[in-house]
Amino acid sequence: MKLLYIGDVMGRPGRELVATHLPQLRDRFSPDIVLAQAENVTHGKGMSVAHYHELRGCGIDGFMSGNHIFEAADLIPLLKDPNSPVTRPANYPEGTPGMQYKYLDTACGKLLLVSLMGQIVGKDADKPIDNPLHVIDEILAAHHAEAVATIVNFHGDYSSEKVVIGQYLDGRVAAVIGDHWHVPTADARILPQGTAHMSDVGMVGTLNSSLGVASDVIIKRWRGERQGRNELAHDSPFQFCAALIEINPDTGLSESITPIVDYL
Q: What is the rounded distance in angstroms from the CA atom of residue 149 to the CA atom of residue 130?
């Protein structure tokens, strides 16, 4: 089973790149399943229902997420719907809207999708969050046997935490794919017990930017000047970051992971 995992789709440039470039990737790699990180889809924060349907129409089968996924209030019903393939971070406290995991039907069987938040994530570092290792243990103990394979998305800031979660889950899930940095890392590999791991898959959006945001806005912020609102960069060139993972449905583990970084 071939899984194409697309990095953070950053605003309108990211959506347009998915519409134009995903068909080419399908022709090149013939993936069976396409997943994408969706927390930045709508104006860089969250994903509206309209944009959810737009990306589904482009051929994305399921969506992983992070701390911004709640920004579009109209998405909340889809987070609660077990038949809607969009996740929210599983280790937010009890009472958070949405389900801790989702199942995605495939030709090979059910794929278990779990998004996890790192314990330190930017401005949300002071918000209460449950230990991601404890939470994934509980989910796998209760639901792992029902899935042909499990995909874990880890949305965090610390490289050490991203590496540790991969090692912790090695041999227990098919893949642990990190994101949130919007910068692809050079550590994609199959871990010793068969789990595909990459600390950060990167993003889909404007290349000459600060993680998809107009650089002049961020430079002023770093210089200590007036705080301005984030404005997405829209001019070419663009980048499309993803990873192609080959999963053995008989074992639920991975045989290869290939980073994809296309400049357009």
A: 24
> Which DSSP string do the residues of 13-47 spell out, in sequence order?
HHHHHHHHHHHHHHHHH--SEEEEE-TTTTTTSS-
User: What percent of the chain is predicted at pLDDT more than 70?
Assistant: 97
Q: Is there a catalytic annotation at residue 197?
A: no
Q: Show Cβ contacts of residue 199 under 8 Å, excluding neighbours closer than 6 positions.
A: 159, 162, 163, 166, 178, 185, 187
Percentage with pLDDT > 90 across the chain: 83
| Residue type at position 249 | P
Q: What is the pLDDT of residues 142-162, one digit of tens each?
A: 987 889 999 999 999 999 999
Could you give phi then psi for residue 216, rounded to 5 degrees?
-65, -35
Selecting among 51, 68, 155, 180, the annotated active-site residue is 68
Strands (E), 10-141: 33-37, 62-64, 102-106, 109-117
Cα separation, 2 vs 200, whole angstroms: 19
Which H or E element spans position 127? none
pLDDT tens figures, 1-53: 999 999 999 999 999 999 999 999 999 999 999 999 999 999 999 999 999 99
pTM for the full predicted model: 0.94
Residues 22, 26, 28, 29, CA torsion sign: positive
